[in-house]
Specification:
The structure holds two protein chains of two kinds. Chain A has a single domain, classed as Transcription Regulator spoIIAA. Chain A is built from five helices and five strands. Chain A has helices at 3-6, 29-39, 59-74, 86-95, 107-113, and strands spanning 7-12, 15-24, 46-57, 78-82, 102-104. In chain A, helix 2 runs parallel beside helix 3. Chain B is α+β, with helices and mostly antiparallel strands. Chain B has helices spanning 9-16, 32-60, 68-83, 110-122, 124-127, 148-151, 184-225, 230-238, 262-268, 271-291, 315-336, 338-344, 376-387, 397-403; strands spanning 85-93, 100-106, 155-160, 167-176, 248-259, 295-300, 303-308, 349-364, 369-374, 392-395, 409-411, 427-429. In chain B, strands 5, 6, 7, 8, 9, 10, 11 and 12 form an eight-stranded mixed beta sheet that branches. In chain B, strands 2-1-4-3 form a four-stranded antiparallel beta sheet, sandwiched between helices. In chain B, helix 11 crosses helix 14 (397-403). The chains are: A alpha/beta, B alpha+beta. The A-B interface holds A 26, 29, 58-64, 66-67, 69-71, 73, 86, 89-91, 93-105, 109, 113 and B 1-4, 6-8, 10-11, 14-15, 17-19, 22, 24-25, 42, 45-46, 49-50, 52-53, 56, 73-74, 76-88, 106-108, 176-180.
């Protein structure tokens, strides 16, 4: 599957937005990390992961997000996530990932507050 | 990964807007009953998520689409996501004593990799692993073993792969995102996971081997079918151990056919033309015999030996029907195929059919076997074939008796044939 089908990127308010599409699984690894590497270079300080178009996230997909957050923190970048369903909010809480990212209900809120 | 500042108040508003059953993680710790319930709920949810993951992974572990390293990588990511570790490492050991490599890292640093590598290389426990698939139980790591240093709050899974890759393992390393220590329940869960992974890999290997075996059989079948009839190939492939050599008595109808005047024809034609024309002849005759549920036992020069045995009691009818079609097929070849016509124009087929008990089996030595038939009927069909003129089919008495209501025959004068003591009564199909 092509990168563009799994992740699309855009720059809004100085924030790099990674829009997740479809299923976020280990198969998304290359697409997610490539998109992150490509668009987070330079002065980028804020990354927003938007799940509004994500249909499903499995444990492997969460591991990819953890990996991305880990890389971002090494670069002192701030990471936010938005548009997660309550189920995944619970999972992010349960594994402790919500302590490392800012979580927002909508992308509008995220772009204002991140 | 160091813990960052608590998120904005917006997050808590978001949290407050969630249904009550999603709020377990913020229940006050002084309420012990609730905390216990939360732990149980968390544990159950984790188990459910893992089961879902395992089910998905097992479906994705199919031959041709994944290999064992990819499977291990998927398992590693699943563990990392389920247990919320900040980093994980996939390592591979090429042989029993050395050459351990970290082949994939998520999170963590290069320094972590070096540190882990050093521990793995010095671990006696890993070096002493037997060559089977399994899990290193952390509780079983001896205190003196280097591996014990990372055992306390990390997950180490070691799964033994094929001989050339002695073992492949996963280490979930570093602090958990939740800062919680691994509970006994979670460690038990890892054991269950390891069993599931082991089963998945075993199933994968069995399926892969089965696919390879099927491909081999398919290839072998294709090769064999170029030399012997598909039905005989089937029998050979289904036979236990060695294809038997003692033979089996069967009531068959034997059809012998050859091209009249072939010796003279072969002398006046170039071998290349002859072979080309003969191959077309074999092809057409095979199709016709197969159409009538017969099997071609062999081609010898211009001669065809076919057996009809699949529907006992009906064999002569099918053999005679095949013979009539073979005559037609030969004529059509002469009409339609210029090269065939140039070689065989003035010729025709002679066919002899005999029904009786024969010995069917694989004859020869261990080095060279030939699946064929022997017996009086084989000899008689060949003799009748030799007596038949171009475009004629001669049959023996049993063949005549079983098919006289369906075909017209002309009774011929009994004659003495080579190899058979008594006079032979025969009939010509007209």
């Amino acid at each position: 599957m092509e990168t563009k089908e799994m992740v699309t990127t855009e720059m809004k308010n100085g924030i790099v937005v990674l829009n997740m599409h479809g299923d976020v699984t280990p198969f998304s690894e290359k697409a997610v990390m490539d998109a992150y590497e490509k668009h987070s270079a330079g002065e980028t300080q804020k990354i927003l992961i938007n799940f509004s178009n994500a249909k499903y996230i499995n444990s492997g997909g969460i591991a990819i997000i953890i990996s991305l957050v880990s890389e971002a923190r090494k670069k002192n970048q701030k990471v936010g996530v938005c548009c997660l369903t309550p189920h995944f909010v619970k999972i992010f809480d349960m594994i402790g990932l919500s302590d490392y990212v800012e979580m927002y209900e909508t992308d509008v809120e995220a772009l204002q507050l991140l | 990964m160091s813990k960052c500042m608590k998120p904005t108040s917006k997050r808590y508003n978001y949290y407050n807007s969630m249904p009550d059953n999603f709020k377990y993680s913020r229940v006050s710790s002084h309420n012990l009953d609730s905390a216990k319930i939360i732990r149980i709920q968390k544990s159950l949810e984790m188990k459910l998520r893992w089961l879902e993951d395992m089910q998905q992974m097992e479906h994705s572990f199919s031959p041709g689409t994944s290999n064992e390293e990819e499977m291990m990588k998927a398992v590693m990511l699943s563990l990392m996501g389920n247990f919320g570790y900040s980093s994980s490492f996939l390592f591979l050991c090429e042989n029993r004593t050395s050459d351990i490599r970290i082949i994939k890292r998520y999170g963590g640093t290069e320094e972590d990799s070096y540190q882990l590598l050093e521990i793995l290389q010095q671990s006696l426990m890993l070096k002493e692993r037997n060559n089977d698939i399994g899990l290193i139980q952390l509780s079983a790591v001896p205190p003196g073993d280097k591996l014990a240093g990372i055992a306390k709050n990390n997950i180490v899974l070691v799964i033994i792969l094929p001989v050339e890759k002695m073992y492949c393992g996963i280490i979930l390393f570093g602090e958990r995102l939740s800062h919680e220590e691994l509970s006994q329940g979670e460690l038990s869960l890892v054991s269950i996971m390891a069993s599931n992974i082991t089963s998945a890999i075993k199933n994968y290997r069995l399926t892969t081997n089965s696919f390879r075996l099927q491909a081999d059989i398919f290839r072998t079948r294709g090769i064999l079918e170029q030399f012997v009839a598909p039905e005989i190939v089937e029998e050979m492939l289904n036979s236990e151990k060695h294809f038997h050599t003692k033979g089996e008595r069967k009531l068959l109808t034997i059809l012998s056919a050859d091209i009249r005047g072939f010796t003279a024809i072969s002398e006046r034609n170039e071998p290349e033309h002859l072979v080309s024309a003969l191959n077309r002849f074999y092809s057409i005759m095979s199709d016709i015999i197969s159409k009538h549920s017969g099997i071609v036992d062999k081609f010898i020069g211009d001669a065809v030996l076919a057996l009809f045995r699949l529907e006992p009691g009906n064999d002569p009818v099918r053999a005679i029907s095949a013979a009539l079609d073979m005559h037609k097929g030969f004529e059509e070849l002469i009409k339609s195929d210029e090269e065939f016509r140039s070689v065989f124009e003035s010729s025709g087929l002679g066919i002899g059919i005999s029904t009786g008990e024969v010995i069917v089996g694989n004859f020869g030595s261990g080095r060279r076997m030939d699946y064929t038939v022997i017996g009086r009927s084989v000899n008689l069909s060949a003799r009748l074939c030799g007596l038949a003129r171009a475009n004629e089919t001669l049959v023996d008495v049993p063949s005549f008796e079983k098919s006289q209501l369906l075909f017209n025959f002309e009774e011929l004068t009994p004659i003495n044939v080579k190899g058979i003591e008594e006079f032979v009564q025969m009939y010509k199909v007209i």
